[in-house]
Every structure is written in structure tokens, then in C-alpha cells.
């Protein structure tokens, strides 16, 4: 451009818009085929050869390492949906890309981007209002069945969704209810993070189970230690309990052979002092991220305490949080003596080791600070275990959202179709220029049922026409209100009442999808100039 000297490239106007939209649509096309109960999985290989097989939109996009700056917005969009809702990450990306594509067409047809932005905003607001007031069914006292149905809907597109769906849907509901905690304002909260997922390879997925309390896939350091202690006082250490070896490079001159023994004993004495200090503070369960010397195990056995070595740092921090313990990284006090204060201990009603099938598992039950529960997932291989844990997490998030917001909507394209018809009418009532953008927004919503149908190898055009007709009737005629929950039956290729069929989703998830997708689309459509500075080849300013 004249007057602007740039050491780089500049793209503006329609060029940049088209290039951004093309990149976003390309990204959405990647995840498109994984939407819905008959969606397929993706296999991603990173630069060091690690393989991930997944159906989760957020995971796919995170691993793609998208370079295009506008397409990155979509990656962040999926991550945001994952963070705030936990499910619906594929839907949100597909919807955002469709909104963008249509907005770009409108700009090409000489509608000013500002009108489109205003129109999309109005459509989103009206859509959310309709969702809240008419389409969402409040469930005053959520029956267990609704929760299980929602979890099953979330699992249906995943590896756990086929034969084992019932088992895992029930497990997700139990797990979320096990971590229920009273919140600040009297409402209950359900911290999904408190559900600890253990993965074990081998055996069949149906042998997965729910364990009470925080479970660790580790055993006691010695078989002579008790199997069970109750009540448990837990010390969480990040301290080495092996013989305290002198540092490398230190040389000690010993002239008398007896001194050698003394020096060795002293090394053991330091470890003994540490252990005695912890036990004297009242601990009867000692967990350390480092090792424990075999010669030192006798101190634990003598006092009837359980000691576990090589606990991962992540686990130790979680256990500390659950039991109210403080992780201690060094035991030296100000005077240089080894000491351990009783206030650093955490508490649980009972700690015991149990043999579950072939594994020894240490379980901390009824922890003091936060409720915790663990899920032991079994799968044929590593990829399957990883994908199982991601799917389980999605389902648990859905149950959490249901319990928090207490309202459901019908899935399988029902909500999207109902909103689309409503917004179509809404657009027609407006006299302003936003009308066109709102009509496009309405049309864009249909991308979800369309993609669901295409993925299920059904006639999308035919099904969408039927779906629209049904929802049109439901909106116009009060006596046919019941038709508003009609959505796709993807196995038979026809319509059915998805609310009755148990394909339900939390209303909050759909609301966030609408919000986030619109915001992301607007962020990109607002851009009319892209300036890329060339990387400095010499590595500094000349
Ligand atoms: N049995 C079913 N029949 C019809 N539609 C279904 C059924 N189960 C799920 N769906 C629909 O499938 C869609 C969800 O698909 P999917 O779980 O693959 O994507 P997502 O939730 O958007 O993203 P992700 O799970 O990857 O975060 C929803 O629109 C849901 O209504
Ligand atoms: Mg899902």
C-alpha cells in the first residue's frame, strides 16, 4: 500500500475475509465426520510418533497444531467449550464455520459486515431466549433416568457408546454424585476433577469399575505392613527416604576401618530420623514421591503404618487436596534437625489395599476435605484407555451440567431445527437490514442435523425437509407443541420424539454452543486487514 512501508505482507478487504473463512471451513471439515452417534474417529500422529485415536473435537483440534491465525480461533473455541461445558466441542466448531461461511457470502453480496454482526448478535440473543423460555424442559427434581440418558447421549458417539453405554452412563452418574459438595451459596457443586481416573490395560472394558475414595494403582512397600488402617492419618512427602548418600565429588578421608561402618550407619541414621519424625507426629500412612530404603521399612512395620513409594507428584497433590494434607518437600527445620509437624497430616476414614482382579489398589476412603471417587477403566490398549477416559470425562461433565442447571433439551438436531424455524419467523418480522443475516443464522443452525444425517449415511435433504415441517407445525399450532422435541432417529433414518427416546442434552451446553460459535464467527468476520511481518532473518533489528 502506498505510504506504508512494511517489511512483510498485507492482505485486506475481501481477500483476507475469504482466506480466513476458507481456513476455518477447512478446519471444521476435519472434525465434521466425527459428529454424532455414528461419527467416526481420527488418528493423529505427532512429530515424535505418538499416536492418539479420538472422536473428541477439542482433542483433535489441539493436536492438529493449526498454523493459520484465523483457524486458531476455532481451536481456541473448542478448548473454551471443553473448559466451560466439557461436551459439544465438535458441534461448536462446525456451527462457527458454517456461520462464517454464510457471513462471507453476505459480504460478497454487498451487505456491510456491521449489519451482519448486528444481525448475528440479535439472532443469538433471540435464540437463547427461545431456548430458555420454550424449548428447555425444567426438571425440578432430576430423576436418575434423565441423568443416565444424558450421559448415554454424550457417550453415544464415543468408543464407550456401543455395547457398554449403559454401564458407563450409570457409572458417570454415580461418580458425579459421589463427589457432590455443598457450595458457598447453599447450592451443591460437582467438581468433576475430583473424579480420579485410573487406566489399566488388559481385560475387557466391561470390567471397569467405580471405586469409593481416591484410588492409587500402587501397593504397600512391604507385605508385612497392615492391609488396612483406620482412621488414617496421612503424610504426603516429597522427600527421599533412601539412605542419604553423600553428594558426588565429596571426598572423605578415613584412616580407621571402624570409621567406615560409622559413616555408613550415619547415612542410615538420617533416614531413620526422618521416618521416626513422621511416625512420631502420628502418621500411619506415609506416601512419598521418591524411594524408601528396604532397610528402613522395619520402622513402618513396627508401628503398623502403611508406606508407599513412588507415588506420582500429580497423585500426591490430589491426595493432599482431598485429605487436607500439606505436601512436605524438605524435613529440615530451622535448626537443621529433621522434624515433621502433626498439622501437615491429612485425614481419611480408612485406607486399605484391595486386590481388584489382578491389580493391587490402595484406596483412601472418605477423605476429610473433599469428596473423591475413582474410576478404574480397562481397555485393550493404550489408545483405547486414553479415549475411554476422555469420553468418560465428557459424560461426567454433562451430568454435572444437568445437575447444576436442571433443564434439558432434546438432542439429535431437535433444538437446532426448532431454533432455526423460530429465527426464520423472527427475521421476517423485522424491517431492518439485519433481516438477511438473521435468516442466514437460522439456516446455518441446520448444519448440525444435516451433518448428523450425512454421517449416518441417511438422506439428509429428505430428513431435514421433514424435520423443518414438523417444527414449523409445532411452532404455529399450540395443540401440536409436543412435536417440538422431534429430532432424528439415525439408525432408522426417520423422525422420532427424542425427548421420549432418551436422547437428551443439558440446555446449558446448547446455550454455550450458540454463544461461543457466534462470538468466534464475529471475531473473524470483523477482520478486514491482516498484516504479517516477515521473520527477521538476521535475528535482530538492523
Ligand atoms: N442416539 C442419538 N440419536 C440422534 N442424535 C444423537 C444421538 N446421540 C447423540 N446425538 C447427537 O449427536 C451430537 C453430539 O455428537 P458428538 O458427541 O460427536 O459431538 P459433540 O458433543 O459436539 O463434541 P464432543 O463430544 O467431541 O465434544 C448431538 O447433537 C446429539 O444430539
Ligand atoms: Mg459429545
Q: Would you kindly provide a written description of the structure presented here, covering whatever features stand out?
A:
The longest helix is centred in the middle third of the chain and has 24 residues, at about 255-280. The protein starts with 7 loop residues before the first strand and ends in a 9-residue tail after the last strand. The chain is elongated, with a radius of gyration of 29 Å. The chain has helices at about 15-30, 55-65, 70-85, 90-110, 115-135, 145-155, 165-180, 255-280, 295-305, 315-325, 380-405, 415-430, 435-445, 445-455, 460-475, 500, 505-525; strands spanning about 10, 40-45, 50-55, 135-140, 180, 190, 195-200, 210, 215, 230, 230-235, 285-290, 305-310, 345-355, 360-365, 375-380, 405-410, 485-490, 495, 505, 530-535. It has two domains: about 10-140 and about 410-535, GROEL, domain 1 (Orthogonal Bundle); about 215-370, GroEL. It has 17 helices and 21 strands. It has about 550 residues and is α+β, with helices and mostly antiparallel strands. The mean pLDDT is about 85. Strands 9, 10, 11, 12, 13, 14 and 15 form a seven-stranded mixed β-sheet that branches. α5 (about 115-135) packs across α12. β5 and β6 form a beta hairpin. The structure holds adenosine-5'-triphosphate and magnesium ion (MG). Magnesium ion (MG) binds near residues 87, 154, 157 and 394.
Amino acid at each position: 500500500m502506498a505510504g506504508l512501508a512494511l517489511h512483510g505482507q498485507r492482505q485486506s478487504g475481501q481477500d483476507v475475509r475469504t482466506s480466513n473463512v476458507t481456513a476455518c471451513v477447512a478446519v471444521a471439515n476435519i472434525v465434521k465426520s466425527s459428529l454424532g452417534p455414528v461419527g467416526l474417529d481420527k488418528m493423529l500422529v505427532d512429530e515424535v510418533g505418538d499416536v492418539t485415536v479420538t472422536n473428541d473435537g477439542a482433542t483433535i483440534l489441539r493436536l492438529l497444531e493449526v498454523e493459520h491465525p484465523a483457524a486458531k480461533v476455532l481451536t481456541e473455541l473448542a478448548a473454551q467449550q471443553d473448559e466451560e461445558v466439557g461436551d459439544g466441542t465438535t458441534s461448536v466448531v462446525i456451527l462457527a464455520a458454517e456461520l462464517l461461511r454464510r457471513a462471507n457470502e453476505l459480504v460478497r453480496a454487498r451487505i456491510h459486515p456491521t449489519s451482519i454482526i448486528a444481525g448475528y448478535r440479535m439472532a443469538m440473543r433471540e435464540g437463547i431466549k427461545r431456548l430458555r423460555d420454550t424449548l428447555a424442559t425444567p426438571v425440578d427434581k432430576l430423576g436418575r433416568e434423565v441423568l443416565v440418558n444424558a450421559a448415554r447421549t454424550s457417550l453415544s458417539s464415543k468408543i464407550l457408546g456401543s455395547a457398554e453405554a449403559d454401564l458407563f452412563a450409570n457409572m458417570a452418574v454415580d461418580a458425579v454424585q459421589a463427589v457432590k459438595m455443598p457450595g458457598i451459596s447453599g447450592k451443591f457443586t460437582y467438581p468433576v476433577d475430583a473424579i480420579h481416573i485410573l487406566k489399566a490395560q488388559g481385560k475387557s472394558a466391561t470390567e471397569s469399575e467405580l471405586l469409593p475414595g481416591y484410588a492409587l494403582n500402587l501397593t504397600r512397600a512391604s507385605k508385612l505392613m497392615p492391609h488396612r488402617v483406620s482412621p488414617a492419618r496421612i503424610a504426603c512427602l516429597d522427600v527421599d527416604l533412601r539412605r542419604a548418600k553423600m553428594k558426588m565429588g565429596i571426598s572423605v578421608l578415613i584412616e580407621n576401618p571402624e570409621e567406615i561402618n560409622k559413616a555408613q550407619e550415619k547415612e542410615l541414621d538420617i533416614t531413620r530420623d526422618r521416618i521416626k519424625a513422621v511416625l512420631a507426629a502420628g502418621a500411619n500412612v506415609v506416601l512419598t514421591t521418591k524411594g524408601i530404603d528396604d532397610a528402613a521399612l522395619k520402622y513402618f512395620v513396627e508401628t503398623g503404618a502403611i508406606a508407599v513409594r513412588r507415588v506420582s507428584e500429580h497423585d500426591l497433590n490430589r491426595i493432599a487436596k482431598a485429605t487436607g494434607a500439606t505436601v512436605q518437600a524438605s524435613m529440615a527445620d530451622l535448626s537443621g534437625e529433621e522434624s515433621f509437624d502433626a498439622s501437615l497430616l491429612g485425614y481419611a476414614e480408612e485406607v486399605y489395599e484391595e486386590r481388584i482382579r489382578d491389580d493391587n489398589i490402595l484406596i483412601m476412603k472418605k477423605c476429610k476435605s473433599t469428596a473423591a471417587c475413582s474410576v478404574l477403566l480397562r481397555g485393550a490398549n493404550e489408545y483405547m484407555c486414553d479415549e475411554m477416559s476422555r469420553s468418560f470425562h465428557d459424560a461426567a461433565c454433562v451430568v454435572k451440567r444437568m445437575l447444576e442447571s436442571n433443564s434439558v433439551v432434546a438432542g439429535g438436531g431437535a433444538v437446532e431445527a426448532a431454533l432455526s424455524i423460530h429465527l426464520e419467523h423472527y427475521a421476517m418480522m423485522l424491517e431492518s437490514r439485519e433481516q438477511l443475516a438473521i435468516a442466514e443464522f437460522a439456516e446455518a443452525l441446520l448444519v448440525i442435523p444435516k451433518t448428523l444425517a450425512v454421517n449416518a449415511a441417511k438422506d439428509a435433504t429428505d430428513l431435514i425437509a421433514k424435520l423443518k415441517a414438523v417444527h414449523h407445525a409445532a411452532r404455529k399450532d399450540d395443540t401440536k407443541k409436543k412435536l417440538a422435541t422431534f429430532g432424528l432417529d439415525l439408525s432408522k433414518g426417520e423422525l422420532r420424539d427424542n425427548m421420549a427416546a432418551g436422547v437428551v442434552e443439558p440446555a446449558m451446553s446448547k446455550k454455550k454452543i450458540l454463544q461461543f460459535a457466534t462470538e468466534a464467527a464475529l471475531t473473524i468476520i470483523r477482520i478486514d486487514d491482516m498484516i504479517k511481518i516477515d521473520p527477521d532473518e538476521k535475528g535482530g533489528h538492523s
